[in-house]
Amino acid sequence: MKPKLIQFLFWLLTKLGAEYYREKPEPVRGYPLPKSVTDLIPEAHFYVARLDQARESGEWKKHQAYAAMIKNHPESAKRDISLAIEIAVREL
Fold it and tell me: What does pTM read for this prediction?
């Protein structure tokens, strides 16, 4: 009964002049990053590339990059710094 009701409502809407699409819209690819993160990404690339040569664990490398960026940008949110580092690691 519910599908019939939905079909009736769509029919009624089209008779009243409404337009709808049966196809699903294309999903949005990616998420627009805030400017606070995009400003940090080039510096994160620098630290990640420099620390990639180290013979330590990945967690140690991330921590070193995180600590260096916190020292250089104390006003930035820590989650923005973490996201910039994660993006830099994925693009490496």
Answer: 0.64
